[in-house]
Amino acid sequence: MQIQPFLLDDGLALGTVYGTLLNQQATVQRLSPQFDSAPYKAAPRAPVLYLKPRNTWARDGAAVAVPADPGEVRVDASIGLVIGRSATRVSEESALGHVAGWLIASDLTLPHENYYRPAIRQRCRDGFCPLGALVRGTGFDAQAATLTVSINGEQVWQRGFADLVRSPARLLADVTEFMTLSPGDVLLLGPGEGAPLARPGDRVVIEVPGLARLTHSVAAEQGAAA
Question: What GO annotations for molecular function exist for this entry (predicted)?
Fold first, then answer.
């Protein structure tokens, strides 16, 4: 069976979606006492990445199923930069020239505080990465952007991106130092502190001025078929 591509627009298929942890100053400050403990005894020096595989991808308007335990999902809403030209060991100064555009991502996860092992069971469930429409162009300033999350018509969370540990350009430069990013790949700027929780029956709306609004609902997971 041939797998159909997930098209971001008429000319670009979605490649690989990479999430970024520990990219907000407030998160690093909160966790800094843990970084001094074994086995690491220091804060990470390179970007901490994870994957949102194909089974997690969902479009605007999707209904995302959440298991009864814990019966809620954390909405790690973020901005993603979309690669337009292959990027290998790019400089910070030239990095954004490899970006085709930007989108909103609802990087969903079951609530957890695990930063030391891949949280695959929590972050990689079916439908756990709704993506908004790609807005092309390099003129968007992510660090000046404000993202809001509304649940059932009420704004419950707001975040900015001025306090990133790595700016979008710096993040792209550091990631491509050790791996190539290809057209259609998405690099998320990372979760923010205090992200809200959503439960079955909730409708989530994520907005960033200048980007396409992203909406999805949350539903109770049904029992597996025999």
Answer: 5-carboxymethyl-2-hydroxymuconate delta-isomerase activity; 5-oxopent-3-ene-1,2,5-tricarboxylate decarboxylase activity; hydrolase activity; metal ion binding
CA atoms within 13 A on the CB side of 65: 8
* CATH code, domain with 65: 3.90.850.10
Distance CA 4, CA 27 (A): 38
Structural domain boundaries enclosing 140: 7-220
> Considering only CA atoms, which of 189, 15, 218 is closest in space to residue 103?
189
Which residue is listed with tokens 């159909």?
A: 4
Rg (the chain; Cα; Å): 17
Helix (H, G, I), strand (E, B) or coil at 63: strand
Model confidence at 78, in pLDDT bands (50, 70, 90)? very high
To the question of pTM greater than 0.90 for the whole model, the response is yes
- DSSP string for residues in 93-131: TTGGGGEEEEEEEEEEE-S----SS--HHHH-STT-EEE
